[in-house]
């Protein structure tokens, strides 16, 4: 479990580092973020679909520093005529305290329509999902340095999403996804009984893993650009 946690932290660092360059996540978006979650997700569909993945989430502390990473997981199912397989790295930029609060407690259910027509290997941005259990709005985040970036950053959207996906898909489905804390993994890293709220509020000691340091280094670098 601890090795999985380390791997998730390193993947998050790599995804954010490449995301700034390859999918053009503006450094301004990361500088103003209240939290950041990164998930590595597999989706398989034969008529119905299933989705599973895992990753980590960090939150900005009152001091301006970043919290220790909390382990999270995604599970989901889809209903419809859809066929294929896809692997995605998904970044959630949490833009207000309410969005961070939702990730602290888990059980975040999202629903949305996925219209896919991907008969060949692809890399693209996904359609955004809208959480059904809160008033938080989700949208595909702005990319690059455009004239509209400042206006977009002032929008009330609670969560920006970015994704790099590879897979072959065709069809349409209605997807329902849930994001939860990985309590057993967090217990292995931080101690039995440690909750996601405690981790994201800075109430635990920072793990001395190189992968955690790498993740924090990427986030600090984004703030300094």
From TrEMBL:
Q: What InterPro entries does the database record attribute to this sequence?
A: SH3_domain_YSC84-like (IPR051702), Ysc84_actin-binding (IPR007461)
- Pfam families xrefs: Ysc84
Give GO MF terms, alphabetically. Answer: phosphatidylinositol binding
Q: Which residues form the Ysc84 actin-binding domain?
A: 76-221
Q: Which domain of life is it from?
A: Eukaryota
Q: What is this protein called?
A: DUF500-domain-containing protein
């Amino acid at each position: 479990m601890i090795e999985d946690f380390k791997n998730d932290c390193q993947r998050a660092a790599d995804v954010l580092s490449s995301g700034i360059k390859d999918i053009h996540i503006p450094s301004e978006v990361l500088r103003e973020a209240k939290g950041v979650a990164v998930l590595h997700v597999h989706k398989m569909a034969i008529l119905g679909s299933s989705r599973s993945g895992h990753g980590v989430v960090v939150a900005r502390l009152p001091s301006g520093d970043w919290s220790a990473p909390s382990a999270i997981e995604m599970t989901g199912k889809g209903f419809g005529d859809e066929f294929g397989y896809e692997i995605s790295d998904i970044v959630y930029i949490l833009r207000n305290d309410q969005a961070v609060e939702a990730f602290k407690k888990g059980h975040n259910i999202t629903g949305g329509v996925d219209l896919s027509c991907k008969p060949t290997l692809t890399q693209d941005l996904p359609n955004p999902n809208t959480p059904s259990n809160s008033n938080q709005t989700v949208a595909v985040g702005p990319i690059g340095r455009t004239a509209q970036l400042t206006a977009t950053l002032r929008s009330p959207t609670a969560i920006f999403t970015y994704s790099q996906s590879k897979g072959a898909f065709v069809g349409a489905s209605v997807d329902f996804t849930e994001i939860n804390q990985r309590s057993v993994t967090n217990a292995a890293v931080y101690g039995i009984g440690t909750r996601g709220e405690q981790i994201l509020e800075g109430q635990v000691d920072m793990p001395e893993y190189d992968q955690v340091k790498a993740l924090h280094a990427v986030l600090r670098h984004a703030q300094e650009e």
